[in-house]
Specification:
Distance between the termini: 73 Å
Strand order of the largest sheet: 1-2-3
Strand content: 5-15%
Shape: globular
Radius of gyration: 30 Å
Largest sheet: 3 strands, mixed
Length: about 500
């Protein structure tokens, strides 16, 4: 498969050389628009739909099983030119987004028309599931060329997904300093600041003048991305403070750095949690921050683009983890692999559903005497589930922000219980009155309404307590508080709700 990509790229390069005039006449790229990626995706999908129609008219039917989709869709020369033009116009992040939204065979076809000089940037941007499919479609030389265009911190992100021989060859091509940086980045835990930090930064000495600093900056062809400040160090590389670009510009060139630099600034350790660092960036409106080791030596910096990635990834992890899904999964991955990845929580859910059914069956006699109970049970469980989900979401978010600590857990639980009590009484009264009104002619309406009131109140309180307890218990066990919380909450509110409601009904309808 990797050879197929190389052959196609070479063929397209030949065609491209035959049209130098057209390429030279191409207009310069316009300013980027937020809709560029979505418009490009719509057009790419339209191109592939047209190709499929052409195949059907010619008597060939495109296969849709996983084995056949592991090969790129055949593309006509006209479609190839347009696909290449689309890729050339798009930013690497937009291309990554489009690739993630395409089925595997169409993704591989489009990947063939991405310029080789942009492969590395795109591999960094796509999620892990899609990255694996793209890496499998590339040969060794293509992978080495792609990775060598990246910065050291970006290479560290890719190394776990690369074949060992490619990783070794890439490291051989690095300078001694870059190898040291790569080893350092790979030595830190995955969710730490050290794994996210950037090694490209500007340092100045505290005894330098602002004029000499300005001359130093002018010698750069381009400053590192997100440079809002330079970092002040002494002769031993120890961090002393920061000097913002605005201070360099507004102060006299004769002033000394140590007289105008900021000393009381946030510094991070490579072992700090990336979540804590993201919160600090949000709290202090930072663009970049120094990363220093235990000896106060400056080892790198953390930038806002990495922090945005952290926030986005954590949000996705919480959303997917709540229902037991992997946030890095390719939506067009193998059907079999996708099905297997969902078995665990589906199995857990099945077990909890059977437990809830056994609770109901234990009250068959009561239900046979008061058939209306069967219609009212889902209402009690549903309201409690909603209340519990509100508490669960609040707790998971607050814990992610570091606002829930060992000292304030009792206060949080007390508050959520009181909120649930108020809601339980209010909605219990409303639901009780509605049940009484609906069954007023049955002779059991008033008693049903009273049972509904008590059950609704108690189960809403139960839902809130469980919604608060689930993330706290999961965190105490060292697990992600968001992982599978909704499944556990549903089990407790369904089984508990049925038990409370039917037990009360058995007590009052003897």
């Amino acid at each position: 498969m990797s050879g197929a990509r190389t052959d196609m790229v070479e063929e397209e390069k030949k065609q491209h050389k035959e049209e130098p005039a057209a390429a030279a006449a191409a207009p310069s790229s316009p300013m980027r628009d937020p809709d560029d990626a979505s418009n490009a995706l719509a057009r790419v999908q339209q191109i592939f739909d047209e190709l499929e129609d052409q195949e059907e008219k010619s008597g060939r039917q495109r296969q849709h099983d996983d084995a056949e989709r592991s090969e790129a869709v055949p593309v006509t020369p006209e479609a190839a030119r347009e696909l290449r033009a689309i890729c050339e116009r798009l930013h690497p992040s937009d291309i990554a987004w489009v690739l993630e939204a395409l089925p595997l065979d169409e993704r591989l076809a489009l990947w063939n028309f991405v310029g080789s000089d942009r492969d590395g940037e795109i591999l960094i941007e796509v999620n892990e599931g899609v990255r694996e499919t793209l890496i499998e479609a590339m040969n060794r030389d293509e992978l080495v060329d792609a990775v060598e265009t990246l910065d050291t911190d970006e290479i560290a992100d890719l190394v776990p997904d690369l074949p060992p021989d490619v990783s070794a060859e890439v490291q051989e091509g690095l300078s001694m300093e870059e190898r040291s940086q790569l080893r350092a980045a790979m030595s830190y835990p995955e969710d730490s600041v050290g794994a996210r930090m950037d090694f490209e930064l500007v340092t100045v000495r505290e005894d330098a003048t602002l004029g000499s600093v300005l001359e130093q900056l002018r010698r750069y062809k381009a400053l590192p991305d997100h440079t809002d400040k330079v970092f002040v160090v002494d002769r031993g590389g120890h961090f002393r403070g920061t000097l913002s670009l605005s201070r360099i510009l507004v102060n006299s060139p004769s002033k000394v750095v140590k007289d105008v630099m900021q000393k009381d600034v946030l510094t991070l350790s490579p072992l700090d949690s990336e979540s804590d660092a993201a919160q600090a960036f949000e709290r202090y409106d930072l663009v970049s921050a120094a990363v220093v080791d235990e000896a106060s030596r400056l080892v790198g910096r953390l930038t806002v683009d990495e922090v945005v990635d952290v926030i986005r990834e954590e949000s996705q992890e919480d959303a997917f983890g709540a229902v037991g899904l992997d946030d890095d999964q390719d939506i067009f991955s193998s059907v079999w692999e996708t099905a297997r990845s969902r078995w665990l929580w589906l199995g857990v859910n099945l077990c909890t559903a059977f437990i809830a059914s056994r609770v109901i069956s234990a009250f068959d006699g009561t239900i046979s005497r008061v058939v209306a109970l069967a219609a009212l049970m889902p209402i009690v469980a549903g309201m409690a589930g909603n209340s519990g989900n509100q508490t669960l979401t609040l707790l998971v978010r607050s814990m992610a922000m570091g606002q829930v600590t060992a000292s304030n857990i009792p206060d949080v639980l007390r508050r959520e219980t009181l909120v649930a009590l108020i809601n339980g009484i209010m909605w219990g009264v409303i639901s009780g009155l509605l049940v009484w009104f609906l069954y007023r002619d049955s002779g059991q309406g008033m008693m049903l309404g009273f049972v509904m009131f008590l059950a609704m109140m108690l189960n809403i309180i139960l839902g809130a307590i469980v919604g608060a307890a689930v993330p706290l218990v999961l965190r105490a066990l060292g697990r992600d508080p968001a992982m599978g919380g909704s499944v556990l909450l549903t089990f407790m509110t369904d089984s508990g709700g049925f038990l409370i409601f039917l037990s009360l009904a058995t007590l009052f309808f003897r």
